[in-house]
Design brief:
Layout lengths: L2 H11 L4 H19 L2 H5 L2 H6 L3 E10 L5 E12 L5 E7 L5 H17 L6 E6 L8 H15 L8 E4 L6 H15 L19 H19 L8 E4 L4 H12 L3 E7 L2 E4 L6 H13 L4 H8 L3 E3 L11 E3 L9 H9 L4 E3 L8 H10 L2 E3 L1 H4 L2 H15 L5 H23 L8 H19 L4
Parallel strand pairs: 3-4, 3-5, 6-7, 6-10, 10-11, 11-12
Antiparallel strand pairs: 1-2, 2-4, 7-8, 8-9
Helix pairs in contact: 1-2, 2-5, 2-17, 5-17, 6-7, 8-9, 8-15, 8-16, 9-10, 10-11, 12-13, 15-16, 16-17
Bound molecules: NADPH dihydro-nicotinamide-adenine-dinucleotide phosphate and (2Z)-2-iminopentanedioic acid.
The site of (2Z)-2-iminopentanedioic acid has 12 residues, from β3, α5 and α15.
Length: about 450
Amino acid sequence: MKAKDFLADLQRRFPNEPEYLQAVEEVVNSIEDVYNEYPAFENENLIERLCIPDRIYSFRVSWVDDKGKVRTNMGYRVQHNNAIGPYKGGIRFHSSVNLSILKFLAFEQTFKNALTTLAMGGAKGGSDFSPRGKSDMEVMRFCQAFINELYRHIGADTDVPAGDIGVGAREVGYMFGWYKKMQKEFTGSFTGKGLAFGGSLMRPEATGYGNVYFLLNMLRTREIDIKGKRVAVSGSGNVALYTAEKLIYLGAKVVSLSDSNGTVIMEDGMTREQYEKVFDLKMLYRGRINEFAQTEELPYYAGERPWRIIKCDIAMPSATQNEIDGDDARALIAGGCIAVSEGANMPSTREAIAEFLKARILYAPGKAANAGGVSVSGLEMAQNAQKISWTAEEVDERLKHIMLDIHNQCVEHGREPDGFVNYVKGANTAGFLKVAKAMHAQGIV
Ligand code: NDP
Ligand code: 2IT
């Protein structure tokens, strides 16, 4: 396989899917050599079967808003690969959702899930519906209409959705409720459920905490202490907030949070009291970051991301894809940033990643660093299958262990001759080998 030729062909076939092509390009470039060590892979054209999703469902979702107006959105589920377990991955509700974005997410999920050590294939779904500004009843009607189409294609041993941008406990609850009604069964068909109906303790915290655990493992390789470090966090949703909480607990200084409208800066680090205020504002009242900045009298930069406006030791992008471009990366490095650990999926552009690798800072790609969320989803599936629930301490211990295991896989496959660990190469290679070997063993399916 020649990566260049394969990618040129994919570009010709899917010219309007830039995010999908970006995610595939990164993986294919890093696994080219190891792929070519296994002639059987090439004989079976495994690379094409691995990069093109198994199937995609797309459908129209019609629902009625509070004014009685009939609205339509698009709905999708991309089932990418189930070589090592049932399809598994979140659902995203955001106005920007399109097939290219969901294909990139399902592709990434396949490798991420392989790294978790648990038996989960890769999938992603979603809609261009935006829950922002909608009433609970509107969100409920939308979720029911969405699942009315999707319920036939998912299930505890088939495909298990969860949350992502715009999908939290409320949305998962509504989707699970309708799934259960249509299927006439109570099964672990979703993760991220409420605690009263099969959810796992620590699932809400898992992605953010897991990312911090991954960061600690990276810092340990250079004997760096997290205490007192200035950490720029972007986003202010599920992942960003639990990242911030764990960082404050560990004595780091969280110097920023953001949303799609702007960034708040906390030069001396967010206090515990400020954290509680912003958590309530976002989680209970679905408020905006500029409201937090106003009430706390903190500097707010409308339309800006954190990277160029504040100096930090560590960056933890936790909002969305391609939120750090080449100029942002250069500004971070020039400002003394020593580590980037990605809570979001593919938050760094190709150019930004190249800058991080060139500067030889600690750089963890999302498919390794943010795998804690889906890992605890896997633990939720295990608990549901046994009809038991574990304590928060037990889940947290398992999460720490999984994040260490993922870190070790990255080091094993990503260490370069001079000792530098290329976590991109490590994560891609380890994830690829697991999935590819399973696909090879199962024949052409
Ligand atoms: P939430 O919906 O809870 O929060 C998303 C945050 O990102 C919000 O602050 C939102 O701001 C901001 N954001 C979303 N889209 C954009 C955009 N286009 N430009 C700028 N800011 C944006 O989602 P999560 O916290 O769950 O997800 C954040 C990231 O983490 C995503 O990349 C997701 O794929 C990834 N992830 C999530 C996991 C999970 O378990 N939830 C697991 C692994 C990865 P606003 O309110 O203005 O839209
Ligand atoms: O990107 C991700 O890993 C998620 N949104 C979580 C997926 C899951 O199934 O928990």
